[in-house]
Specification:
The chain is about 60% helix and about 5% strand. It is mainly alpha-helical.
Length: about 180
């Protein structure tokens, strides 16, 4: 019977997609972990979706992030083999954001999360995606990864999460989001 553990990380190192291992605190594993958290946070949002388009859109994004994570987890020699995130995926994400933004009104002030379960989940996902973006930017600047489309994808995704928050709030009847400042 297969087990859920391998014991290979008991020494504090983890394997990459290719030859080699790095410490679990390495910037690569920090980025991989942040992307993994983003996938999970988006899953919480997807589970709570009420909007007509949200669930399928988020599922596709989660799959994109799986590919993005694989490229980050690959050694430099193997990264191209795992490359799925390119300019066309970023463009697709922008198109999805444009479709959503045509259906919601942009608030004039900062808003507070919590007007709906799914909206709050997407607000949290946005912050987790931003953390993943910071980790991936570090890898790019330190020349540990070379695909700039990974940065663009995560940057657009955080904006899309905000649009999804507004869209999901609207799907449950919230017409004006809770503003951060009191009037």
């Amino acid at each position: 019977m297969p087990t859920f553990y391998t014991r290979t990380g008991d020494d504090g190192n983890t394997g990459l997609l290719g030859e080699g291992r790095v410490p679990k605190y390495h910037p690569l594993t920090e980025a991989i972990g942040a992307i993994d958290e983003a996938v999970a946070a988006l899953g919480v949002g997807r589970a709570a979706c009420r909007g007509e388009r949200s669930s399928a859109l988020v599922l596709t994004i989660q799959r994109d992030l799986y590919h993005l994570m694989a490229e980050v987890a690959a050694t430099r020699e193997n990264a191209a083999r795992f490359r799925q995130i390119n300019a066309s995926r970023v463009k697709w994400l922008e198109e999805q954001m444009d479709l959503l933004s045509n259906q919601v009104e942009m608030p004039k002030d900062f808003i507070l999360p919590g007007d709906s379960s799914a909206g709050a989940a997407f607000a949290l996902a946005r912050t987790v995606v931003r953390r993943a973006e910071r980790r991936v930017v570090r890898l790019y600047h330190e020349q540990l990864i070379e695909n700039p489309e990974l940065l663009r994808y995560l940057n657009r995704l955080s904006s899309l999460c905000f649009a999804l928050e507004l869209y999901e709030n609207q799907a449950v009847g919230v017409t004006s989001p809770t503003l951060a400042r009191q009037n």
